[in-house]
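Much of our argument rests on the idea that a fold can be written as discrete symbols. The amino acid sequence and the backbone structure tokens for this protein are reproduced below:

___
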Amino acid sequence: MASTEFDRVPVEDTVRALRRLAPGASLREPRTPELRVLARALDDHAPSELARTHPGPVARAVLAGQLRILDRAVTGFFDAGPGTARLVRAARYSRRCRAGPLLDRLRAEPGLRAAALGWAEAGGHRILAGELRGVPEVPSDDDGRLAAELAVAALLPPPERGGRVPGGDLVRTGSAFLDVRSLRIGDHGFRVDVESAAPVELVREEDGLTLRALWWKGLGRVTDDLGHEYLVVAKDPAGTPTTRHWCHPRPAPGARLLRLESAGYRGERLRLAAVPVGSCVDVLVKSELTVRL
């Protein structure tokens, strides 16, 4: 199942859904103390406020996340940005056993620590870079938002497979570009498949052919006619016009209508030349589909 920045639901939308969540939800318990503190804090604070209200847990959560990225980078199997080659070489000639906490290895080996510091600074990993320099960084609003994403990810249940198709015809209304293809309701959630027919055109301009396209970003919000919200726990565009969404929990008792709000589109422009030149921009075209249960 795909999970990328492109199809991920913004953390602000997920936090709003958590505050208005439909009954019957079953959330996970975050594994670390700092993530549990941050998950509770999101009941009253916006993601961008966490760095100011909870700087300690934010710094620890972000540091742990950046150490996980570093741990993958030292293997050399992942494209982890500038400085990775030097980091991999330093890790390969490390004198210590690879077992044990990575941060302990970094503190014990100046060469590996210097390579990791260069990698962290080049990649914008501020909290990790400050830890390696021995001068802790004060968390920024962006760090608070990242910590909120980590806390929310720790709460979300896994997508539920299977489910049943509601009885009767699937009644839906919505956009000219979007169409609900199927709805399956499981014991703990539901899955909705939406097909996008966003326009793509190839036009001839003065300097050659240009491809213009709109790519749908999936659903950004799911509500019902009782005022409840539902978590979009996963999306899978799968490289096809149809995007599959797993939502939690199952529709609330008494709900008769689901409202599916589009997250907008990404517009792309690519000039087809000897050296292709392109650009892209998010297009906030909000549209809503409805599905009768």
